[in-house]
Specification:
Helix content: 40-55%
Pfam families: RHH_5
Number of helices: 2
Order of helices and strands: HH
Protein name: Arc family DNA-binding protein
Region (Disordered): 43-65
Structural class: mainly alpha
Organism: Spirosoma sordidisoli
Low-confidence stretches: none
Shape: globular
Strand content: under 5%
Domain CopG-like ribbon-helix-helix: 17-46
């Protein structure tokens, strides 16, 4: 079952976007995939920090967005 994704507008500094583009390319992801990966990673770490637990849902593999 595929999960639906919500689209939204992101305003970002041009320099930040260029750096994200380079980083995404290094990790064979699209910019969108890289942003989603970073957000999921930050949320996972935040949940772990708040609960002290390690039971996290698996992260989707979005390498070819």
């Amino acid at each position: 079952m595929a999960s639906e994704k919500k689209a939204f507008v992101l305003r970002i500094q041009p320099e930040t976007l260029k750096e994200l583009e380079r980083w995404a390319q290094e990790e064979f992801r699209s910019v969108n995939g890289q942003i989603e990966y970073l957000l999921n990673d930050a949320l996972r770490k935040r949940r772990k920090q708040k609960t002290g637990g390690t039971d996290d849902p698996p992260e989707p593999a979005n390498r070819a967005d």
